Input
Amino acid sequence: MSSPTPIILDCDPGHDDAIAILLAAGHPGVELLAVTTVAGNGPLDKVTANARRVATLAGLLDLPIAAGAARPLVADHEASVEIHGTSALDGPALPDPRVELDPRPAVQLIADLLDASRVPVTLVATGPLTNIAHALDRVDRAKIGAVVWMGGSTGRGNRTPYAEFNSYADPEAAAAVVASGIPFTLVGLNLTHQAAATPEVIARFEALDSDLGRVVAGWLEFFGGTYRDVFGEPHAPVHDPCAVALVADPGVIETVEAFVAVETAGQWTRGATIVDLHARLGHPANARVAVDLDVDRFWNLIVDAVRELG
Output
């Protein structure tokens, strides 16, 4: 059996980020070295507290957690209150955090963990790419095995008609990371909308008959309610665990090679990801792009991870 892939999960919890943490901690295919946080779904203080509460709930009391960027590289921070609520993780009550916050800034923790690792580390990002962009000038890039990002889309957006939230939140950072030359995978809305939290899925977590399973079911119910209110969708797409799933069990997601760029200046399209699936622009491919999800296998991964932790 192959060794687990070491990862650092950079996130902005967020309901789907919280589930991504659980999958990363509970799946044997990955070794979760640390969680770093970035302002995105909520302000930095709130998403960092959420990460610590989720880790406490799951019994991950020794998990290093460090706070990162409080604002994008250029623009002001905009939270996603209408989707994730005022705490960025509204819904079931969570325990007070018993996981200490690492005193190092996120970029320093990333640099230290990369230096200490004997093998390249995959950076899995499920929020704006601000921390990763800052890290590019501070770390030994050869120690980064890949960046796998839940962000962007091959088609329409969800923050604006053409921009997905994480890309819109800091397009300059996304553009810098995509152009860095580090192996890059885009797990966008075109893929994550295949990961719908249907009533049957929610019932599987309730059937675990554990506190953790019930909380996950509550998160999905809250998330589903805001998606119905804002987008008119019957079930919430659970975006962020898809990026972790791709690393934990690569066969769960089909990818293609394509050229990817990020729009930073468009009047109506700022934050849009340009994904040239048909090689019309004449640029060589610089990314893997997720296109198809094995839905049953995906949900099995998450249910198994929650069962393992719970």
